[in-house]
Design a protein that fits this description.
Helix content: 40-55%
Largest sheet: 2 strands, antiparallel
Number of helices: 5
Shape: extended
Distance between the termini: 7 Å
Number of strands: 4
Order of helices and strands: HHEEHHEEH
Radius of gyration: 25 Å
Strand content: 5-15%
Length: about 180
Amino acid sequence: MPSHDYTAREALDLLVNEITKVNKELASRIELAVNEGKETQILAPDQPTRGRRRRVARYYRKNEPFTDEEALQVALTVLKAHLIETRMFARAAHGEFYAIGMADPKSLQSTTDSTGPPANLQGVDTEKVIEIELEPETVQSKRQVPNHTVKAEQHPGIESLRAIFDELREVLDFG
């Protein structure tokens, strides 16, 4: 039995409303994820057999909306991905790309010594732009969602954010 006096729907609405006040883009991403629903596989009703053919079980996929509890967990997952996982990804990716020299091929040719690596590689110490495609090309119905640019930022409090999310999952348990 839950130890709180609010429903999952009320908690989800409050969460989305508070996030909308701060970051409308993040709130729209949460709403998109919640509205996607879950895909289930359902057994089709038995069809009459004709002749000697065996009856084959047929399944179809159906998209069903999340329950309020599931929608709240999806919203928390999107929020955690935005606040923690994206920053960890950005830090790791920028660390890997930082050492890679990405320069104009013409400048590489002019500074390259025929016996060894380029003497003066342009672009080694510059920050590279990393974007995450939020709407893949394979989506049937396009929503024109812009790509998300990932910036390298140092966040010393990521571990404390993880602890907060663990506590939130316990508080928002409606089982």
